[in-house]
Amino acid sequence: MSRHRRPSGFQRTDRVADQIQRELSRLLQFELKDPRVGLVTVQDVTVARDLAFADVYFTLLGEGEDAGLEAERVLSGAAGFLRSALAQSLNTRTTPRLRFHYDKTPERASELSKLIDEARAEDRELRPDDDTNTDND
Fold this sequence. Notes:
InterPro entries: KH_dom-like_a/b (IPR015946), RbfA (IPR000238), RbfA_dom_sf (IPR023799). It is found in: Cytoplasm. Keywords: Cytoplasm, Ribosome biogenesis. This protein has about 140 residues and is an alpha+beta fold. It is built from 4 helices and 3 strands. Strands 1-2-3 form a 3-stranded mixed β-sheet. A hairpin with a 5-residue loop joins strand 1 and strand 2. The longest helix has 22 residues, at about 105-125.
């Protein structure tokens, strides 16, 4: 058995991804001065095993998909600046190249919630006399 066996849980790439997420959040809030990028929230960062790439998933507060895709283009254009700023704080030999992805999950969750509410309202209209409903909203 090797002395250098990796633990099955938290790996180096996870630690690097967490550090990138924290640092990018700070950089986007205080260093990036582009009006096309509103209030960005970095949802997740995944780092390749060889640390060559970091995929950054983000959302925009109170904005729609069009603004999110525009922000994705802007952030991709600023990836070099952000990568050099990250290099100063990461303790790695190389700094991963950043790839930004607009995360549509919150919008999709809102759409699904609305559809569920509409289906429940329609169901209540079809069965208005059903008082045995134990639904606890």
